[in-house]
Write a structure and sequence with these properties.
Order of helices and strands: HEEHEHHEHEEEEHEEHEHHEHEHEEEEE
Shape: globular
Length: 429
């Protein structure tokens, strides 16, 4: 009865999303390839990030601590800080909401965040917290940061000290920097807030965090880089990346020594909000961020001389979240649940996708899991991450976008046909 209308509506909605969110896709003109594998010691993997990337770096560190040896966090906060609430995310963990900023409450939440961490570890949803004891953490909070105030970073410091000794944690908070990635020579003035959210503060944040995590490193390359910046297809690691708040492609910087077979390490660098390829940036290619963060955050120069492969996964804007008010218009990483109720666990869509990228770089084969196939109400499918809703009354299968009807109570049989892709079927094998 509604098949013609359903098809037209779905197509119209997908066109709207494409126009609003993906207009910057044409800026990616380099050849996109499948992510290669190299001679990598996966147990020497490290992670860092700025802004939402800082929250994501902490989240990834805690969830996958079995392979992570250290983390660098710039303007981020403790694990599970948002506690599934966009209001908490924007009014406590950051000062980006419409209400009064309550960042001072972040420290008060730490005992509860530790409790959730222990609960998730006991359930096997994240790696055992005992892995963290030998890790090293480097943190930076600009004293002029108006987006993630230093109080939130103090909460992170307090959180980590439940698992890591103070001697293994470095916390720098004496630079009058606004909300940005800090570099020696690239970007806006240190106290400026705005695109591309990279500031010239005469301070090499990427280099300092890498040196803290890995110890003595060779001097960075100040001449032409010898390695290669490779653009790869993120769709290999998560079905329909756009629907999960991820860009279609990502980047990886591979030093020449790693390409030639040397034993190398992986560093995962998460960009911040409004730093994804399609974000507005007047000085970027076609007025977009493009690969600005990837080329100018400061990691590649150190990676080039120290056998470090830098993985740059890319987020994307998303206006349809896991729940009606959990949206992501600025291309942030999912640290409050806009896409996935399991966002802080290993099973989270973005978490699992980035881990699969790390595994690929290290030549580790993923163990396939049996696909889901069962009947449940549309609301139950949404709660489990198998479906999503538009405008509260249009229901669609996650990944395939199959239309499921107009009621959350409708019983629908869904089958997982590939990782994170669910299709409406009439029977299960």
């Amino acid at each position: 009865m509604h098949s013609c209308f359903d098809t037209k509506l779905i197509n119209q909605l997908r066109i709207i999303v494409t126009v609003l969110l993906l207009s910057g896709a044409s800026i990616l003109s380099a050849e996109v390839v499948s992510l290669p594998s190299y001679n990598v010691d996966i147990n020497k993997t490290s992670v860092s990030g700025q802004s939402s990337g800082g929250f994501m770096a902490v989240q990834f560190h805690i969830a996958w601590s079995s392979i992570i040896k250290g983390a660098g966090v710039i303007a981020g906060g403790p694990y599970y800080c948002a506690q599934d609430s966009q209001i908490t995310a924007t009014n406590v963990c950051t000062c980006t909401g419409f209400g009064i900023c309550r960042s001072g409450e972040a420290v008060e939440m730490v005992p509860e965040l530790v409790r959730v961490t222990e609960e998730n570890a006991s359930a096997g949803a994240i790696d055992p917290v005992s892995n963290l004891s030998n890790d090293k953490v480097w943190m930076l909070s600009g004293s002029a940061d108006s987006v993630v105030p230093t109080q939130v970073m103090k909460a992170l410091d307090s959180y980590y000290k439940n698992y890591i000794s103070a001697s293994r944690i470095y916390f720098k908070k004496d630079i009058a920097a606004e909300h940005a990635m800090l570099t020696e020579t690239f970007g806006n003035s240190c106290g400026f807030k705005g695109e591309p959210f990279i500031n010239d503060c005469d301070f090499d944040a990427a280099g300092e965090l890498l040196k803290w995590i890995y110890g003595d490193l060779n001097p960075k390359n100040t001449e032409d880089l010898r390695g290669e910046l490779i653009e790869f297809d993120q769709g290999e690691f998560i079905a329909d990346p756009d629907s999960h708040g991820m860009w279609q492609n990502g980047w990886v910087y591979v030093p020449a020594s790693c390409q030639e077979g040397a034993r190398c390490r992986i560093h995962v660098a998460f960009h911040g909000c409004s730093q994804y390829p399609g974000a507005s940036y007047a000085a970027g290619p076609q007025g977009k961020m493009g690969d600005t963060y990837v080329k100018h955050a400061g990691y590649n120069e150190w990676a080039d001389t120290n056998r470090i492969i830098v993985l740059y996964p890319q987020a994307n804007a998303l206006i349809i979240g896991a729940e009606p008010l959990k949206i992501n218009p600025f291309g942030c990483w999912d640290w409050w649940g806009y896409d996935d109720t399991d966002y802080a666990r290993k099973s989270g869509h973005q978490m699992a996708a980035v881990k699969a990228m790390v595994d690929r770089l290290a030549g580790v084969s993923a163990v396939p899991s049996a696909g889901y196939c069962d009947s449940a109400s549309n609301l139950e499918h949404i709660e489990a991450g198998r479906a999503y809703t538009w405008f509260f009354w249009l229901y669609f299968a996650r990944g395939s976008n199959d239309f499921l009807g107009y009621s959350g109570l409708t019983q629908t049989l869904l089958k997982e046909t590939s990782p994170d892709v669910y299709k409406k079927v009439v029977s299960c094998p």
